[in-house]
Amino acid sequence: MDTQSQVVERLRTVFSSGITIPEQFRRTQLTKLMSMIKDNEEEILNALHKDLAKPKFEAILSEVDIVINELHYAIANFANWMKAEYVSKTLATRLDDCFIRREPLGVVLIIGPWNYPLQLLLLPLVGAIAAGNCVVIKPSEVSAATDRLIAELIPKYLSQDCYAVVRGGAEETKALLQNRFDRIFYTGKSFQDGSDPVTAASVHLTPVTLELGGKCPCFIYGRVNIAAAARRLAWAKFFNAGQSCVAPDYVLCSPATRDALLPALRETLEEFYSKEPQTCPDLSRIVSPRHWTRLMDLLGRSSGKVVVGGESNQEDKYIAPTVVVDVAEDDALMQEEIFGPILPILTVESLEKGIELINRKEKPLALYVFSDESSVVNTVLEKTSSGGFCSNDGIIYMTLPSLPFGGVGASGWGSYHGRWGFEEFSHRRACMLRGWALERLNGLRYPPYREDKLSW
Ligand code: NAD
């Protein structure tokens, strides 16, 4: 078996041969990727169930269909994205061909996380293939069944010359990062030992895309349809048992809204997951005992009051959908991204105070505002910053391939989905093709320099 560096070198040689450049080659690979998912849907769903007890419905929506939709969108559009983009010209360049040419970067590395182990590897892969790159794909070892399946399927469907899966955990990933890539696309956050991809990439001056996380607020303010708000909030929060980078991390609202929201949330959660959520097949499990312990520890350190849920079972890696009130800004639940089925509710006195609280924290990946009042929505939109923004719903904005998906500041660098993924894996080469015309006009810039030449 090739070592990691042999894999990268092999792909580099293949890339130099130009095989990934023709549109038809890219189209074939994208179509094969589509077949891979369609032919193996059952195995994919089983693997996701093994890793996270992912309900079939959620897995189809957020892992299978989202990738299929991205593929349809890319296959329909990437030939247009590849076309030269002609730009406006000046008088001195009016006879020239001035355009931007999208070129593949070369050999790129995609490192994926465990929470949506298929989607978060394959969506960037679609952009990387459409842009004409060779790709090293590193699935998360934490979602072991999906990791194994991806490593088995990719070589069966995609060109083995151009795309390689490398498996392993933190140590293998750190070693992999020692190699030179032309872009590193990293989704996750579990590098807190100074071995982050950015430091590794800086040695080779490799550009890095970082799809990170953070604490996504859900600010409920002013007039609001409480029943609908409770359903949309609960769905976005407890989908995948809260293990979504764009899940609402905490709720901000007035005391009166909290009092109205709580019974609505209780009713919704019972409707969604029954009186006995542990027996409900529609609720995922926490990915590993380590992550379960982290969440229970976080809940244990909170001085808030659990008003819904709170039950757990270590063996089953189960945590009930849990709502916590009386949570202060310095509470344990407010210090890190929760990434699990625990929803703290904080109260604020006014719209301004809520905005101030949001702005005291790092810029989140997503920000949600629930309100019937457009002035509230617009004020929050204008006075805050986040990777994405959605009013009166959660998560759903990221399913639209025409919107860029990514963070800002501490929630990430760069974006993808649809054309944005293609762009992230392309170099925009500035091209000016000139002839020999207008040489007298050009003469104005040659020595001997005279003041009057400047004022022409
Ligand atoms: P993870 O533990 O699966 O790690 C992600 C990847 O990094 C894995 O492939 C893993 O092997 C590798 N890795 C682990 N330790 C490493 C190290 N020291 N150096 C280099 N690579 C290493 O996933 P995670 O980090 O727990 O993912 C959860 C986090 O990711 C959350 O914070 C979440 O918000 C974020 N996330 C962001 C997005 C997004 O699109 N922005 C999507 C999903 C998850």
From TrEMBL:
Organism, as annotated: Dicentrarchus labrax (European seabass)
Highest taxon listed in the record's lineage: Eukaryota
BP terms from Gene Ontology: aldehyde metabolic process
Classification lineage: Eukaryota, Metazoa, Chordata, Craniata, Vertebrata
One CC-aspect GO term: cytoplasm
A Gene Ontology molecular function term of the record: 3-chloroallyl aldehyde dehydrogenase activity
InterPro entries: Ald_DH/histidinol_DH, Ald_DH_C, Ald_DH_CS_CYS, Ald_DH_N, Aldehyde_DH_dom, Aldehyde_DH_NAD(P)
Family, per entry: Belongs to the aldehyde dehydrogenase family.
Protein name: Aldehyde dehydrogenase
Active site (record annotation): 211, 245
PANTHER family per record: ALDEHYDE DEHYDROGENASE (PTHR43570), ALDEHYDE DEHYDROGENASE FAMILY 3 MEMBER B1 (PTHR43570:SF2)
Keywords, sorted A to Z: NAD, Oxidoreductase
Domain Aldehyde dehydrogenase: 21-428
Matches recorded under PROSITE patterns: ALDEHYDE_DEHYDR_CYS (PS00070)
